[in-house]
Write a structure and sequence with these properties.
The protein has 212 residues and is of the alpha/beta class. Helix content is 36%, strand content 25%. It folds into 2 domains: 7-127, Rossmann fold, CATH 3.40.50.2300; 139-209, no CATH class. The chain contains 6 helices and 10 strands. The strands form 2 sheets. A 5-stranded parallel β-sheet has the order 2-1-3-4-5, sandwiched between helices. A 5-stranded antiparallel β-sheet has the order 7-6-10-9-8, with helices on one face. Helix 2 runs parallel beside helix 3.
Length: 212
């Protein structure tokens, strides 16, 4: 099991001053990636999987609603938590974002304490769930106080409690050397696990909660 790494946050805003403010506020505790527009953000997400996305709404070209809609279309990105950072604070604006799948809102102008709390709350839950999930993988067993997790093999149509067995059954890929970026949202399933293999390639696997 890997040691806890710094959270990776993608910040998407066309305003350089906002990027600089959030960089100064968050860079001590997280690894930050910056995008100035929606298309650049989607290209970055193709290259890596952030733990959290802070997304402006009013941007030239593709706006934040459109970026979020694109993220939700892909199985690889649909479960990345997204917080809108915006000056659009009406109930209608917030309802639209939440209906599209946003996890929270941070309103501009920024209040430092609120920014830290809202982002910190998201990352705290992410890290708690990642720790729980990795414990299950490491122990190769299910503890009674944890949700029941299974992995589904597409080829053999079977379900496995053990992650490694599911991978070995599905394809002949070398054993994974690390498990990174357990992606999920608090409100939605499935979990997503990005696995790095010996040859450097990566593949995304789904895991679903059956405890309910």
């Amino acid at each position: 099991m890997e040691t806890q790494s710094r959270s990776e946050i993608l910040i998407v805003d066309d305003d350089k001053a906002n990027l600089m403010y959030l960089n100064n506020l968050l860079s001590d505790e997280s690894t930050l990636h910056m995008a100035r527009d929606g298309m650049q953000a989607l290209k970055l997400v193709d290259e890596f999987t952030p733990d959290l996305i802070l997304l402006d709404i009013l941007m030239p070209g593709m706006n934040g609603y459109e970026v979020l809609s694109e993220l939700k279309k892909s199985e690889r990105t649909r479960n990345i938590p997204v917080i809108f950072i915006t000056g659009l604070g009406t109930d209608e604006d917030q309802m639209r974002g939440l209906e599209l799948g946003a996890d929270d809102y941070i309103l501009k102008p920024f209040n430092e304490d609120i920014v830290r709390l809202r982002i910190g709350n998201q990352l705290k839950v992410i890290n708690q769930m990642r720790t729980m999930f990795e414990m299950q993988l490491a122990e190769r067993s299910i503890r009674s106080d944890m949700p029941l997790i299974f992995f589904k093999c597409r080829k053999c149509k079977r379900e496995f409690i053990n992650f490694q067995e599911a991978i070995n059954c599905e394809d002949s890929h070398p054993h994974p050397v690390s498990i990174r970026n357990v992606q999920y949202t608090v409100k939605r399933w499935p979990y997503q696990v990005e696995v790095t293999f010996n040859d450097g390639s990566k593949r995304l696997y789904n895991a679903v909660d059956l405890s309910g």
